[in-house]
């Protein structure tokens, strides 16, 4: 009877009447990116139950999980924090907010007997903060002209934007209430430093009252690292990667690259495939970190990248490529650079390798057989490079002999043709004179010519017709031919 009376009294007084439930804000929750938001929450359960685990979820993703035996778990960004306990408080804090935090948030707790989930979720919307400092850059290729501008929305309550150096000293630049301009020449003077664009009068309400500490997104000093495919210098045709490296990462950051005052596209790294000489030079990276009420521009020191190309090789003849037989000659293999070490040399004459491995090929006394086309090859572990051929000529007496086989063959053929033509001319002239003499002797009968008689140019002289020309006797007796028969 007493037990029944106590039970009835407890029911009337409300003791032990707690039911399963979760209390969340009635309407949606809104926040700005970069700020913070708190979602108040409480939960109830019957007496005698022990809470073993609580969970907060965004849509279908679990972002907070806390058990009685394990410590609190956070999401990957470490921005969601459970402010409640394993009793009745389930308040959740998000700091700082990002645009991707929007969604439906629900709470769930587990006891030794069952799991209870809030029958409805609270909707969180996140919009861009009007005081987030944005950037824009105007550049002219080839020179350090242009500027970096930081700006905010006109809806942000501020007294203006100002640039500060590493010592928090204000940089005097063109500025206004919602925009401030910093020239590239000033930025270039602060390589290796971090500059800040600050919204004057802004206060982060998610931080306790008092002096505002530096934002957690402030980048540290940057540097450029060069990664190559293998050890040794970068040669023409190789590939390499440039990385912009700092000590911290931020949620909202943008990278810029400058190569010899020219802008390069890229993110935190730039990959170069098939390097050429134009890819060598000075590289500088910059990182813009946007935050609420302030932004940072980190500039790395300049890093020089050298690209080694095959050297240009020349064969130099001292005192010159045209020499007389018996005179000395020195051939030297010269390079257009001193950037290479551990060099080896090879010599070639008319395409055939010589047994000489020094940079100088010397001839104490030139012979005709020493002539031809000479080439020098330079090689080391990085590769090899061959010179253009150099033709050596030798003066012998009053004649020049080209020591090139092609030139020698042409010269010999010309001499032989000239010899044949001269002999043919002499032969033809002699034969004509001989025919002339033979024909003249047969017609004149060997008689002397009258010196006063006119000379005839033709080999065929005019023969006068006689009145009677005796002919030899035949078997029948004497007879005479008429002039007509003979002359015709």
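^ structure tokens above, recovered residues below v
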């Amino acid at each position: 009877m007493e037990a029944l009376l106590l039970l009835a009294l407890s029911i009337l007084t409300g003791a032990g009447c707690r039911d399963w439930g979760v209390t969340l804000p009635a309407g949606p929750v809104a926040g700005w990116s970069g700020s913070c938001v708190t979602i108040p929450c409480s939960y109830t359960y019957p007496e005698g139950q022990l809470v073993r685990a609580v969970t907060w979820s965004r849509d279908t993703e679990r972002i907070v999980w806390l058990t009685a035996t394990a410590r609190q778990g956070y999401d990957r960004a470490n921005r969601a924090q459970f402010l409640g306990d394993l009793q009745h408080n389930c308040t959740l804090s998000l700091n700082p907010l990002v645009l991707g935090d929007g969604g439906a948030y629900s709470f769930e707790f587990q006891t030794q007997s069952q799991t209870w989930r809030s029958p409805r979720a609270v909707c969180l919307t996140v919009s861009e903060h009007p005081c987030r400092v944005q950037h824009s850059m105007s550049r002219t290729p080839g020179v350090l002209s242009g500027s970096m501008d930081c700006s905010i929305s006109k809806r942000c309550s501020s007294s203006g934007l100002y640039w500060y150096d590493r010592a928090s000293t204000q940089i005097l630049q063109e500025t206004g209430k919602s925009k401030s301009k910093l020239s590239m020449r000033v930025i270039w003077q602060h390589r290796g430093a971090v500059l800040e664009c600050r919204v004057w009068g802004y206060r982060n309400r998610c931080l306790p009252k008092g002096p505002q500490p530096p934002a957690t997104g402030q980048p540290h000093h940057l540097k450029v690292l060069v990664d190559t495919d293998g050890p040794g210098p970068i040669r023409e045709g190789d590939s390499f990667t440039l990385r912009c490296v700092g000590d911290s990462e931020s949620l909202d950051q943008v990278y810029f690259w400058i190569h010899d005052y020219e802008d390069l596209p890229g993110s935190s790294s730039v990959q170069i495939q098939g390097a050429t000489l134009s890819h060598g030079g000075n590289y500088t990276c910059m990182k813009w970190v946007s935050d609420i009420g302030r932004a940072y521009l980190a500039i790395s020191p300049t890093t020089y990248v050298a690209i080694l190309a095959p050297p240009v090789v020349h064969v130099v003849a001292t005192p010159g490529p045209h020499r007389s037989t018996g005179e000395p000659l020195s051939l030297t293999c010269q390079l257009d650079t001193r950037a290479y070490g551990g060099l080896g040399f090879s010599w070639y004459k008319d395409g055939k390798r010589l047994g000489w491995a020094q940079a100088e090929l010397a001839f104490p006394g030139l012979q005709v057989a020493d002539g031809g086309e000479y080439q020098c090859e330079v090689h080391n572990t990085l590769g090899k490079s061959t010179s253009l051929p150099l033709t050596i000529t030798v003066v012998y007496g009053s004649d020049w002999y080209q020591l090139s086989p092609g030139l020698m063959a042409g010269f010999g053929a010309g001499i032989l043709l000239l010899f044949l033509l001269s002999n043919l001319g002499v032969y033809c002239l002699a034969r004509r004179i001989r025919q002339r003499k033979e024909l003249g002797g047969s017609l004149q009968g060997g008689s002397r010519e009258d010196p006063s008689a006119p000379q005839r140019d033709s080999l065929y002289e005019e023969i006068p017709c006689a009145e009677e020309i005796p002919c030899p006797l035949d078997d029948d007796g004497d007879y005479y031919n008429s002039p007509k028969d003979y002359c015709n």
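The chain has a mean pLDDT of 79.
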